[in-house]
Amino acid sequence: MTRVLRTLGGITLWVAAVLGVLTCGVWAATAPGWIKPLIVVSGSMEPEIPTGALVIDVPVAAEEIVAGDVVTVYSDLAENLVTHRVEDIALRGDDATLTLKGDANPIADPEPYEVSGDVWEVRLVIPGVGAAIADVSRPAVVVPAMIAIGALLGLSLLRDKDPEDEAALVSDAATGAGGQP
Predict the structure, then answer these.
(1) Which of 42, 44, 75, 137 is catalytic?
(2) Structural domain containing residue 11
(3) What is the pLDDT of residue 1?
(4) What is the DSSP letter of 133?
(5) Are the beta carbons of 110 and 82 closer than 8 angstroms?
(6) What Enzyme Commission number(s) appear in the record (predicted)?
(7) Rounded-to-integer distance, Cα 12 and Cα 3, Å
């Protein structure tokens, strides 16, 4: 039984370690601005980008954006980031005015988006992962998970009794030689 618990603990710790390394990699790419991972919270881009998806954005120069690209920009109206498809773009040097529309929306967004320099463009969509990340990021999940990982670490450190040591203990008990002078 100890061996099964130790194996289960070891496997779970390896899975947790791999997830930890992936998380560190995402953080390492996010900190310098190489990527921007976002969780989709509305259905405005369905079915291509479903609610609960994780999207990975990368910076692209505004002058490289073309109609049809999906970009993430800050909306003064929504006071949040918006990820929509570019319907029209007007370039002025490094600056651009974007007209955006969600695929599921009947009309374009009410405001044009003024951008300069780089714009965040969607490069990867992973359905369902964003919702899972949001769920496991809550303190009600994180605290018990950390306790469970600690318990699994303890289980992985368990060792089977050495048969020779066990035989010596039985022999000492039978002869009355408990190692005492």
Answers:
(1) 42
(2) 1-34+129-159
(3) 66
(4) H
(5) no
(6) 3.4.21.89
(7) 14
103-120 in b/e burial notation, b at 16+ Cβ within 10 A? eeeeeebeeebebeeebb
Per the structure, the count of domains in the chain is: 2
**Cα–Cα distance list, 180 to 74, 129, 166, 173, 177 (Å):** 77, 62, 18, 12, 7
Residues 67 and 107 reside in one and the same domain = yes
pLDDT at 39 over 70: yes
Residue 156 annotated to the active site: no
Question: Given this model, what pLDDT does residue 15 score?
Answer: 85
Q: 141 and 102 share a domain?
A: no
Mean pLDDT on 94-104: 91
Task: Give this prediction's pTM.
Answer: 0.68
Averaged pLDDT, 87-97: 88
Q: pLDDT at residue 162 above 70?
A: no
Here the CATH number for the domain that contains residue 75 is 2.10.109
Pair (122, 78) in one structural domain: yes
Residues 43 and 112 in one domain: yes
- Residue pLDDT, tens place only, 63-85: 889 999 999 999 888 788 999 99
**Residue 95: its pLDDT value, please?**
86
3-state SS class at 88 = strand
Q: Are 112 and 101 in contact (CB under 8 A)?
A: no
Residues 83 and 149 both lie in one domain: no
